[in-house]
Amino acid sequence: MVSIEDTLELKSGETILIHGGAGGVAGIAIQLATHIGAKVIATAGAANQAYVRALGAEVVIDYRAQDFTREVANCDAVFDTVGGEVAVRSFAVLRSGGRAAFIASGSSAPPSPRPDVVSLRPNVGRDRPRLERLLALVTAGAVRPPEITLYPLSQAASAHAVSEGRHLRGKLVLKVR
Q1: Residue 77 phi, psi dihedral angles, 5° rounding
Q2: What is the 3-state secondary structure (H, E, C) of the chain?
Q3: What does the alpha-carbon distance between residue 57 and residue 78 come to, in Å, rounded to a whole number?
Q4: Which of 48, 127, 150, 151 is the most buried (most CB within 10 A)?
Q5: Are strands 148-152 and 171-175 parallel, antiparallel or unpaired?
Q6: Domains in the chain, please, with CATH?
Q7: Residue 84: Cβ-neighbour burial (10 angstroms; 0-12, 13-18, 19+)
Q8: What whole-number distance in Å separates Cα of residue 86 and Cα of residue 63?
Q9: Cβ-Cβ contacts under 8 Å for 17 (sequence gap 6 or more)
Q10: Measured torsion, CA atoms of residues 117, 69, 9, 2, in degrees rounded to the nearest 10
Q11: For residue range 55-99, what is the model confidence (pLDDT) as tens digits?
């Protein structure tokens, strides 16, 4: 939410590419961008394409079979939840004056290789006003919570392995009791 509204300042009518569309954070970002009135393009594996479209993405690129830099151009914004090579290549799809926000690239945004686009690192701290904003969006039906995969605490190692694989749909939750 912070990344879309505060950092990228996404506006109605703009086009945004959201990487990792099936993940919990990206899934909320897709819904919020759609609620704002932006055109949403997302990356996701083949198994998650219908899920990501149901969240509001107009176009879904299978990152395993397609090169997003050949499928997308002139985006106003990019929101990256993947990092690494994906982050670096994301600058190629931005129009002049575009902006990119990165949450998977460490404590700072990767430097922009282009002088005409901005690279941003959102302040992803948690506070009451942001949580209340999210609750209001959920209550209004603009955003729905992500799918949850529940693991008992006794299977924390397995849950951690799934999380490290970075291909989970929605969010992973450990059940303590």
Answers
A1: -150, 155
A2: CHHHHHHCCCCCCCEEEECCCCEHHHHHHHHHHHHHCCEEEEEECHHHHHHHHHHCCCEEEECCCCCHHHHCCCEEEEEECCCHHHHHHHHHHEEEEEEEEECCCCCCCCCCCCCCCEEECCCCCCCHHHHHHHHHHHHCCCCCCCCEEEEEHHHHHHHHHHHHHCCCCEEEEEECC
A3: 13
A4: 48
A5: parallel
A6: 2-120 (3.40.50.720), 147-177 (no CATH)
A7: exposed
A8: 10
A9: 41, 42, 43, 68, 72, 75, 77, 78, 79, 90, 93
A10: -120
A11: 999 999 999 999 999 999 999 999 999 999 999 999 999 999 999
CA distance 121 to 68: 22
> Which pLDDT value is given to residue 149?
87
Q: Distance between CA 126 and CA 1 in Å, rounded?
A: 11
- What's at 115, amino acid-wise? P
On whether the CB atoms of residues 55 and 30 are closer than 8 A, the answer is yes
Q: How far apart are CA 163 and CA 170, in angstroms?
A: 11
**Residue in the structure block whose two tokens are 């941003």:** 120
Average confidence (pLDDT) over 24-52: 95
